[in-house]
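New here. Invent one.

***
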Amino acid sequence: MTALHPQQALFEEGDAATALPVVDHYCGVEARMRKSLELQGQMGPVFDVTLDCEDGAPIGGEAEHALLVAEMLTSPLNQHGRVGARVHPPGHSSFEADVDTLIAKAGDRLAYLMVPKPRSAAEVARACDFIDASCARRGKPRPPVHTLIETHGALAEVQAIAAHPRIESLSFGLMDFVSAHRGAIPRSGLTVQGQFSHPLVVRAKLEIAAAAHAHGKTPSHCVVTEFKHAAALQEAATKAAREFGYTRMWSIHPNQIQPIIDAFAPSVAEIDEAVEILHAAQAAQWAPIQHRDTLHDRASYRFFWQLLQRAHATAQPLPAEARQAWFATP
């Protein structure tokens, strides 16, 4: 009997969440966009690059900036097809122009579109409808849609937003979320320590992660602005991954990329255990097994398979047999 691949044995079609790179790197200035794309070309698609039409565009120069982003998307620098773009918020006068420009000029190369600052699930739905209509008018493929949860309205309806079939990932927007509290959350809530301890911020992070996982979407953790403090970044990324349930995190400086990858990657011991258990499970045709005095079945097999997927996505060394059997390109 042919051994089933873990993906076939453990998930019904459409059940498994899309596995995105664990880093979402943001840049909006031309020189930094070029540098980030060059770095992605060197490191490979272990991180995404999001070209920023919102904060990256000078006031009055939004249209020109969108054209520049489209040029970057279609340039030879986009080697791996893992480059997206953040557009202006749905309520902004440049939202529709951003979408139309990017779809028309670079619709075949967009890995995703990030929609910031939605105020409700209905606004997310309208934004998705406009994106889809723009694609239909031009005969372009529909890119996955990512969205930021950073307003009171979006957080209140985060389950409905996560349930929308066009949404692939939810990101937490820390700075706008804190600002929306009109000073009720102190400045310390923006720091590495405060954003993991202030009750209102912790509640928001947990609700976003829970909603994303409930609907098979990717929760993406907010930035750490103290980009020169490597130890603080490592601590924050580790907490986001190990305690708050996030499987992706924003980067705003190239020096943040590798520490985030390292924090989200499984340890060597975790990888070795997962390989042993999955090999034994596959040999048993995915029936229950006993491994080191512990019983395992398909529920735990799914956990260990997802751990190995994360190891592969973060370019961790895998045993040759496991790499060939489960991750070799057909």
In short: Residues 60 and 91 are 17 Å apart (CA to CA).
